[in-house]
Amino acid sequence: MNIAITFRHMAGSDAVRTYAEEKVAKLQKFLRQAMSAHVTIAVEGLEHIADVRISAGGVSHQANERSADMYASIDAVIDKLERQIRDGKGHNLARKRGGTSAGEYAADVMRMAGDPATPVRTRS
C-alpha cells in the first residue's frame, strides 16, 4: 500500500497527515489488490478541499470534497470512495454471477405487466 499526501496553499501538519493516512488505509479492506493512493489537501479561501485518487489493479476511483473543516472534508471524501468501491464491487459480482442488467430487468417487468415498451423520447 502506497499513500502519498500533498499539501497545497497551506502548511502541512503531522496531525492532518496521520489522520488522512489512517482513513485512506482503511479503504484497503474493500479492495482485492494492493492500492496506491494520492491525497491532495488544499485551502482555497475559506474552503478546505480534500481530493483522493485510488488505484488498485485495473480499478481506479477518485473523489473530492469541499467544506469549512479539513477533517470533515477528509471524512466526506472517504465516505464517497467507500460507496464507489462497494457499488463497483457489487456490479462486478452481479456480472460474474450472471445477474440481469437494469435494462434487461426493466424489459422483463414490462413484458410481465403486458404493456409494450414504448420509448418516451427519440432523437432524430
TrEMBL record:
Associates exclusively with 100S ribosomes, which are dimers of 70S ribosomes. GO terms for biological process: negative regulation of translational elongation. It comes from Chondromyces crocatus. NCBIfam families: yfiA (TIGR00741). It holds the Pfam family Ribosomal_S30AE. CDD domains: RaiA. One of its GO terms (molecular function) is ribosomal small subunit binding. This is Ribosome hibernation promoting factor. It comes from the Bacteria. InterPro entries: HPF/YfiA_ribosome-assoc (IPR050574), RHF-like (IPR036567), RHF/RaiA (IPR003489).
